[in-house]
Design goal:
The protein folds into two domains: about 15-105, Phosphorylase Kinase, domain 1; about 110-250, ATP-grasp fold, B domain (D-amino Acid Aminotransferase, Chain A, domain 1, 2-Layer Sandwich). Helices cover about 30% and strands about 25% of the residues. It contains eight helices and 16 strands. It has helices at about 50-65, 80-85, 95, 120-130, 170-175, 180-200, 255-260, 275-295; strands at about 15, 20-25, 30-35, 40, 45, 75, 100-105, 110, 110-120, 135, 135-140, 150-155, 155-160, 205-215, 220-225, 235. The model has no long low-confidence stretch (mean pLDDT about 95).
Length: about 300
């Protein structure tokens, strides 16, 4: 089984090639196509995870539908027949695009990543140990790794085209997007996170943290990009949760942990992932797809 590393649609205008997605400009809409590339520490690995793009897309489709009553989003169509009917030039690429593509509205993306944390993990745990705060938000003494936070917090970051996203505080975020937009995306990000975490718990999953992206259509702010996927979120099995240590996960933390075990300086090029790491990562992605949506590929 081969990973799709690059999506080439002959005769169509490539708008952007991100770490994971290839985006095509269809004049009055954008076509998001999720490849099987995997990035860690902001470096794209030389080999990918077969079917990863399909998993990310199908999970995003599920959550966009689930949260549409909370906030409008950029989705136009996700079914392959509906996508092709919008632009017949896509017909020859049907098999490639099926399950891994979304037709979306053009927006003006806000220049921040909207990170929401319900638990103390990852970079948040590292910062807490040094400062007893995250992004300028003071936290109580004595919290352990993976502890549930007293309340959900909003810790935005910059959105870097290359290199690392950098955490920013409330004042910096307001400078970038304006006070009104800040209040809106903070409120919506926390609301979406809480509703999604409640749902996920019923499926045996803790959503420890996640990130959202928003864009403007005129003056209206909508939810864009991907949402609550294993690439943008930290998913923990509820039945194994125990504060005071790192947790097992259904996300790409497994791949990060493998890379952390190597003598690699976290700069490009990334190391080739061994076949067993690829297969175990794929199994985790497929598992979280079925747990959340009740469906398989």
């Amino acid at each position: 089984m081969q990973a799709i590393m690059k999506v080439e649609l002959e005769g169509l205008k490539l708008f952007k090639r991100g770490k994971v997605r290839d985006v095509y400009d269809l004049d009055n809409a954008l076509l998001f196509v999720a490849s099987d590339r995997i990035s860690a520490f902001d470096v794209v690995m030389p080999n990918g995870i077969p079917d990863k793009g399909k998993v990310l897309t199908q999970i995003s489709v599920f959550w966009f539908e689930y949260t549409k009553d909370l906030i409008d989003n950029h989705i136009i169509a996700t079914d392959i027949d509906d996508i092709i009917s919008h632009d017949e030039r896509l017909k020859p690429h049907r098999d490639l695009l099926d399950k891994r593509s979304m037709l979306v509205k053009k927006t003006e993306p806000l220049v921040v990543e909207c990170v929401v944390r319900g638990y103390l993990a990852g970079s948040g745990w590292k910062e807490y140990k040094n400062k007893q705060s995250i992004c300028g938000i003071n936290l109580p003494e004595g919290l352990k790794e993976s502890d549930k936070l007293p309340e959900v917090i909003f810790t935005p970051s910059t959105k870097a085209e290359e290199g690392h996203d950098e955490p920013i505080n409330e004042a910096q975020t307001k400078d970038l997007i304006g006070a009104e937009a800040f209040e809106f995306v903070r409120s919506k990000s926390i609301e979406i996170y809480k509703q999604a975490d409640d749902f996920a718990r019923g499926k045996g999953i803790i959503i420890a943290d996640t990130k959202f992206e928003f864009g403007k259509i005129g003056e209206k702010i909508v939810l864009i990009d991907e949402i609550l996927t294993p690439d943008s979120s930290r998913f923990w099995p509820l039945n194994d949760y125990e504060p005071g240590r790192s947790q097992k996960s259904f996300d790409k933390q497994f791949t990060r942990d493998y890379l952390d075990s190597l003598a690699w300086d976290k700069t490009p090029p990334g190391p080739v992932l061994p076949e067993d790491i690829v297969e175990k990562t794929r199994e985790k992605y497929l598992s979280i797809l079925e747990m959340i949506t009740g469906k398989t590929l």
